[in-house]
Amino acid sequence: MDGTTHMTREMTGARMVVQALMDQGVDTVFGYPGGAVLPIYDEIFQQNDIRHILVRHEQAAVHAAEGYARSTGKVGVALVTSGPGATNAVTGLTDALMDSVPIVVLTGQVPTFMIGSDAFQEADTIGITRPCTKANWLVKETDRLAATLHEAFHVARSGRPGPVLIDIPKDVQFATGTYAPRAGHASRYQPGRQPDPAMIEAIVEAMETAERPVLYTGGGVINSGPEATALLRELVSATGFPITSTLMGLGAYPASGPQWLGMLGMHGLYEANMAMHGCDLMLNIGARFDDRITGRLDAFSPGSRKAHVDIDPSSINKVVRVDFPVVSDVADALRAILETWKARGARTNRAALDAWQGQIDQWRARKCLTYTPSQTTIKPQYALERLEALTKGMDRYICTEVGQHQMWAAQFLGFEDPNRWMTSGGLGTMGYGFPASIGVQLAHPDALVINVAGEASWLMNMQEMGTAMQYRLPVKQFILNNERLGMVRQWQQLLHGERYSSSWSESLPDFVKLAEAFGAKGILCKDPADLDDAIMEMLNHPGPVIFDCLVEKHENCFPMIPSGKPHNEMLLGDASTKGAIQAGGAVLV
Amino acid sequence: MALNIATGSTSHSAYDLRSTFSEVVEKHTLAVIVDNEPGVLARVIGLFSGRGYNIESLTVAETDHQGHLSRITIVTAGTPQIIDQIEAQLGRIVQVRAVHDLTAEGPAVERELALLKVVATGDHRVEALRLADIFRAKAVDSTLGSFVFEITGTPEKVDAFADLMRPLGLQEIARTGVAALSRGVKTA
Ligand SMILES: Cc1ncc(C[n+]2csc(CCOP(=O)(O)OP(=O)(O)O)c2C)c(N)n1
Ligand SMILES: [Mg+2]
Question: Highest taxon of the source (chain B) (predicted)?
Fold first, then answer.
């Protein structure tokens, strides 16, 4: 059928789903079939415009859709059955809600006349997913289905992006109704707001006189799109202000850029956190003062005036009170700031900025990422340094799981562009990275896609080896195997008297044999001297690879701001950890 | 016009910086105009329970049949920062058309209706009727042994009436929760 015809037409609900997806420009759907979605699967079978990727677990379908969305800026789509299919999708929905990822999840539901009867594979999907979606809908009439689908895409991508879900009973899929095309869809949901010129003027005034300014940027810059990134780069180079970013915002400003301070926060760089603590003007662009960023709130950047640009009004003054709130899209705010700043003469406090830069250079000289090298064991930091060196300049996308390896990846890999870094920030979902890498690879078939993983996280969605093999996706699973739930072990060492309760990865599989069992390539590396060759072997292999990199088991991730501490009380290495975390901080996560 | 405020915003400007981080707990009455769709009320209530906000009373009914709109009136309590958060969080619910803080926006009329069942004989009956008269409560059901009174007023007036009825044989009370409108020509 022709997806561009805008005539309304009669068709079944199942056909409408496919038609609406085509109308929305969807080319890939991640899913898993079951009784309540069979009519939709039947329609998918009978067309070639939309490719269905059969994952091996519904959680993976949602993470793959997230990876697809974050690496393209488009809306990701997942399709799952009722009951267990829907409940398996909950972690992915929550992940997408926390990280503002636009995805549409379609769930099958028991037929309308059986809803409420505890029918086979019935679950209250709308009730269960209400708190983990931006919006969700149960569609009870086929005539409403197409409009609801278009609305779902609109809501997912508008304002602060997020996950939405449509629950479609099986009888609604079978019944015939009138298809409403996308072109005619008018939504009442129009959350955009323009920045207030008076507030922009006030921010620019503060910028002109600021002695110690810092830009603190977040995922909002990347979600806003390429224009926001371009404007941010222009602003940074025009003003010479230093810039740091949250985990979610990496790549908006290039890691090789001269003003780059590195990531901030709990495992952020010394110079970034010290600049945040000591600044007199903080420009928060699309970040949300998360607790991983602020540390102890009453000691957070005590001497600064703060501007905050966020498209979501509820982010303003939620945790940190700001002086210059701006509710708007990041690109609109940055454009307004740049224009106003130029119109007023493009002034900065040059002399003070030079002194500030001198101070930052001193902090930088601490070389906070220094670690003790080893000739005999692979240090995880070293593995990432070599991975960075050997893949730099390539058309590269990085995903991660959650744990120490994730923080080291953020510290040691350089991101030059947005949408190249997919990691679970807000929810911290172990098991995110592998399926996300599948979604990324499908969106970018010729690119190098690497999932930097911990062995424990990776096992949480290891069944996706089947998906990678079936669709010939050459995703590289770079496992920093410390045989530990490393981040948990680190906290137990620092906070729980070195009592390592259940933080060992026992009975690990032989990862090389595991790869081979799926028909993939496995590489084991344990000697630093072999590392470069082994990484090259991984890069040169045309198919999926599990790279089992046996690393130092007890390495700790530094710098670290212990929970409950301010930015200027960072731990920089093992020597500084004794007694550093007291009872008050232990209660925090 | 209040109903034209874009979804995702609140009528309370984000630029209005009153002393947001004060520790004083205030009581606020919010009027939330929502699309009359299934699940909206659950989302509003889930927001309060999920984020640990208070609901002192909540009323909801369709108020504009043609426009398919319902009005939810919520009485809540919190510090100014929490109240601002509640409004912003309500404002970003997709089906919420407008949020009005009637307490912050100027004088408002607040009324609640209550039914009180008083089981009494003899002097207590007489006294109950006398007090009902003073409070302009109506006896909407009478038997030889009981009354059901209907009273309308502020929650405080209802409380006061109930307190007086208690020793006279108050057995049961049903309250609607607060409905509220701003005073004067402006609409919320
Ligand atoms: C689904 C889930 N369960 C539990 C946790 C808590 N947690 C955070 S990091 C971590 C250990 C991760 O171990 P591994 O993947 O091997 O990474 P490492 O820290 O060793 O690099 C755990 C259990 C989590 N983040 N997600
Ligand atoms: Mg590990």
Answer: Bacteria
pLDDT 10s digits, A502-553: 999 999 999 999 999 999 999 999 999 999 999 999 999 999 999 999 999 9
d(CA A356, CA B127): 79
Matching CATH number, A10-184, of 3.40.50.970, 2.40.50.140, 3.20.20.30, 2.130.10.10: 3.40.50.970
Question: Does ligand 1 lie within 6 Å of residue A488's CB atom?
Answer: yes
- Assigned CATH for A197-364: 3.40.50.1220
Please write the tens of the pLDDT for every residue from B60-97: 999 999 999 999 999 999 999 999 999 999 999 999 99
- Name which CATH class applies to A380-550: alpha beta
Under 8 Å between Cβ of A102 and A471? no
The reply to whether residue B6 touches residue A190, judged by beta carbons under 8 angstroms, is yes
- Determine which helix (DSSP H) or strand (DSSP E) holds B119, and give its type and residue range: strand B108-119
CA distance, residue B14 to nearest chain A CA (Å): 7
CATH number of B108-182: 3.30.70.1150
Query: Among residues A5, A7, A42, A34, which one has the least CA distance to residue A22?
Result: A5
Q: Do A131 and B50 count as a contact with CB atoms less than 8 A apart?
A: yes
User: Token digits for B75?
Assistant: 């009485």
Catalytic residue among A16, A430, A487, A570, which? A487
- Whether the CB-CB separation of A89 and A32 falls below 8 Å is answered with no
In short, whether A425's Cβ falls inside 6 Å of ligand 1 is no
pTM, entire model: 0.94
